[in-house]
Amino acid sequence: MDVHVSLVGRRDLAGQIYAQLRAAILDGRLRAGEALPPTRELARRLAISRNTVGVAYDRLAAEGFLTSRVGAGTFVRETGSAARGAPAASPLRPRARWDEVSAWPAPMPGIRWDFRAGLPDTALFPYEAWRRIMSGVLRPSVLGDPGAAGDPAGLPALREAIARHIGVSRAVRANGRDIVVTSGVQQALDLIVRVLLEPGDVVAVEDPGYPPVRMLLAAAGMRVRGVPVDAEGLRVDALPGDARAVYVTPSHQFPLGMPMSLPRRRALLDWARRRDVVIVEDDYDTEYRYGGRPIEPLQSLDEDGRVLYTGTFSKIMRPVLRLGFLVAPPSLHRAFRMARYVSSWHAEPPAQAALARFIDEGLLARHIRRSRREYRARHERVAELAGSLFGDRLAVVPAEAGLHLSATLPPGTDDAAIAAKALEAGIGLFALSEFAVTGPAVPGLVFGYGAVTLPAIDTGLRRLGGIVAGAAGAGRG
Predict the structure, then answer these.
(1) Kind of pairing between the strands at 243-248 and 202-207
(2) Cα–Cα 20 to 30 A to 391, which of 103, 155, 271, 372?
(3) Whole-angstrom Cα distance, residue 410 to residue 38?
(4) Where would I find the HTH gntR-type domain in this sequence (predicted)?
(5) ∠ at Cα 312 (310, 314), nearest 5°?
């Protein structure tokens, strides 16, 4: 056991050792059953006599903190007290805005039918192929010089692989130099805020929209303004005139699901050009498109270089794989690289190297094709059952992509109460009102189907149908 003990001066050396070991035991840094270094070894490390260490050990043993076994060594005894944490009293206080931030979503214990949006089916992931690739990259010859931490923008091989992948699958115009590897869309947005915006700047977001984005922007000191959406996506005519940035999900609006129409996309680009505004395009799960014509990204329509395109691999592969990317124009390359450097330097090199090989060997494209077939069947089943089981109580919002469907409830319905009642029955899902920003909340339910199988969809939605019907009856009463 490598115990940290340091000595100050030469007075009462045994007392100093005793106090530091006692504190480590009480704090939980040394746990019951752990071995302490032999007195000879600790004396050598501290450059003191062995008898001095022995005095400290004997005192701790006499007070019940240590026990010795002949031929085995000295061990920490069970003290029966809870480990102590950091000092409770402190003059340090967070900024007031952190009192307003809470984790989203709230924990949902006891789920049997998991309709939470944004979760993929981890059982579809090709674990054997990923394990083979990971074992292949965990070698010094692949990881390179251990003294070189790596490019803050990411491994060149992964950046080139991402550029090829999004160029083929999404028609995004980018090369490897334009890519910054991130831990996900939220880190990409954090980099954008720190590179391009100032505290107090107005940032427009879709209403309803993704809560963690609003939380990040508010925590960074931005003034967040919700902008309503309609059947064509974000309403450009409702954008605030003092906005410095706009965050949008044009290919598959979150959470409602409709794409932004081509005229609306062109109008947004024109509005941003005239007002010198940056557009953040979050293309979060459009690898999963089940019908209709492919939606051209804002980034590929942009002629001015003011669209910053972000994406993530978490919803394609596994949420625990925290790898995403940001596509930026050349004028911002150095600033984003430096912003990445000063915050967290770089993403995990082995995971980056593995993902590069996963893409280059065609395994990512194969996984998307396979999982798309499964998700399409679930998408169609949710749409069919939601339309037949709930009657006129639930109106499904048409969508042709992603891992969830939204449906609206009659005005005045308490969708949060329905979601809470569903959770009591083992059904996990989000109320649509959770995603409201500043405008009136539209009641409804969001049905994620990434983490729920086809048979479970049938069982879960039929059970949910009774809960919704009961809520409708109570409302009429």
Answers:
(1) parallel
(2) 372
(3) 73
(4) 11-79
(5) 165
CA dist 105 and 447 (Å) reads: 15
Residue 327 C-beta-side C-alpha neighbours within 13 Å = 30
**DSSP single-letter state for residue 255:** T
Residues 230, 379: Cα–Cα separation, whole Å: 22
447, two tokens: 């049905």
- Measured in Å, how far apart are the chain's first and last C-alpha atoms? 68
Whole-number Å distance between alpha carbons of 406 and 402: 11
Contact indicator for 1, 28 with CB cutoff of 8 Å:
no
Q: Which amino acid is at 35?
A: A
Could you say which residues of the chain have pLDDT below 50?
477
Burial class of 308 by CB neighbour count within 10 A (0 to 12, 13 to 18, 19+): buried
| pLDDT at residue 139 in the model | 77
* Euclidean distance between CA atoms 381 and 376, whole angstroms: 9
Tokens 């059970």 belong to 463
Q: Hey, is 408 helix, strand or coil?
A: strand
Name the DSSP letter for residue 85.
Answer: -
Residues in the chain: 477
DSSP SS3 for 340: helix
Using one digit for the tens of pLDDT, what is the confidence trace for 91-123? 888 888 788 777 777 888 889 999 999 899 989
Buried b (16+ CB within 10 A) or exposed e, 450-475: bbbbeebbeebbeebbebbeebbeee
- Tokens found for residue 230: 């309609």
Residue type present at position 224: V
Q: How far apart are CA 153 and CA 176, in angstroms?
A: 10
* Order of strands, sheet of 430-431, starting from the edge strand that comes earlier in the sequence: 395-396, 404-408, 444-448, 430-431
Q: How is residue 379 written in tokens?
A: 């998408």
- Contact 280/397 with Cβ under 8 angstroms? no
Q: What is the CA radius of gyration of the chain?
A: 28
